C-alpha cells in the first residue's frame, strides 16, 4: 500500500460525490477503489480527473473495454438504486 488513504463518505447526490473525488484529485490523490461508502485513494505525482458513468449491469464489460482501449482506467462499482437502469 503506497501512500493509501481510505475515506468513508455518504453523499446526497452524485454531484457531491464527484466534487469530493475531484477535490482529492486536486490534492494529489487518485481514486483506486470504492467499496460501499469507502473510497480508497493513492498518492500520485500525475494529474488525474474522474468522470462517473452509470450503465446497466449488462453493458459494464463493454463500457470498461472501450474505456481501457482509449487509455482510461475504470473503477466499476455498484450502488444501490431504487429503480432499474
Structure write-up:
With 85 residues, the protein is an alpha+beta fold. It has helices spanning 14-26, 60-69; strands at 4-8, 29-35, 38-43. Strands 1-3-2 form a 3-stranded antiparallel sheet, with helices on one face.
Short description:
The protein has 85 residues and is α+β, with helices and mostly antiparallel strands. The chain is built from two helices and three strands. It has a three-stranded antiparallel beta sheet with strand order 1-3-2, with helices on one face.
Shape: globular
Rg for CA atoms = 13 Å
Separation, N- and C-terminal Cα atoms? 35 Å
Tell me what portion of residues adopts beta-strand conformation. Answer: 15-25%
What is the H/E string? Answer: EHEEH
**How are strands sequenced across the largest beta sheet?**
1-3-2
Total beta-strand segments: 3
Specify the number of helices: 2
**Rounded average pLDDT:** 83
Q: Residue ranges: pLDDT <50 for 5 or more in a row?
A: none
User: Structural class of the helix and strand makeup?
Assistant: alpha+beta
Largest sheet: 3 strands, antiparallel
Query: What portion of residues is helical?
Result: 25-40%
Can you tag this structure with a few keywords?
2 helices; alpha+beta; 85 residues; 21% strand; 3-stranded antiparallel beta sheet
Helix/strand layout:
Elements: E1 4-8, H1 14-26, E2 29-35, E3 38-43, H2 60-69
Antiparallel strand pairs: 1-3, 2-3
